[in-house]
Amino acid sequence: MLRDAAGAAALLTVAWLLTAPYSLPWYDLAAWAPFMLLAATATDGLLLARTTVLVCAYVPGRAIALPDAVDGFARTLRGTVGPYAGIALLLGAAWLGLRARRDTRDLP
C-alpha cells in the first residue's frame, strides 16, 4: 500500500514538474521525497538530470555578484539549454512510459 501511494505521488509530481511552464530547482524536492520510498528506476535519472540543469541555471542561494563567465553560463542554461532539456526530459518520460506499457502487455 505504501509503495502504491509513493508511486502515485512520484508519478504525479514528476508529471507536474515536466509540464509546468515555470519551475525552479527546489520544486524537485516534492518529487524526490516519494522517490526515496521506491526502488531505483530510469525515472530517477531523468529527475536527476532535470535537477542538475536547473541548479546550475539558477545557482540558488547566491548573495554576491558572480563573475561574468559564470553569470553568462547560468543565463545560457536558463534561457537556452534549460527549455530544450525540459523538452528532451518530457520526451524521455513519455518513452519510458510507453516502454513500461509495452513490457506489461508482453506478460502472460
Short key terms for the protein model shown above:
74% helix, 108 residues, 4 helices, single chain, mainly alpha, 0% strand
> What is the radius of gyration?
16 Å
- Mean residue pLDDT: 86
Total discrete domains: 1
Strand content: under 5%
Low-confidence stretches: none
Fraction of residues in helix: over 70%
Structural class: mainly alpha
- N- and C-termini, Cα separation: 24 Å
What is the H-and-E element order? HHHH
Counting DSSP H or I runs of 4 or more residues, the number of helices is 4
What is the β-strand count?
Answer: 0
Q: Sheet with the most strands?
A: none
Shape descriptor reads elongated
Outline the secondary-structure elements.
Elements lengths: L1 H18 L9 H7 L6 H17 L9 H38 L3
Structure description:
The structure is a single chain. This protein has 108 residues and is mostly helical. The protein has one domain. It has helices at 2-19, 29-35, 42-58, 68-105. Helix 1 runs antiparallel to helix 2 and helix 3 (42-58) packs antiparallel against helix 4. The longest helix has 38 residues, at 68-105. The radius of gyration is 16 Å and the shape is elongated. The two termini are 24 Å apart. The mean pLDDT is 86.
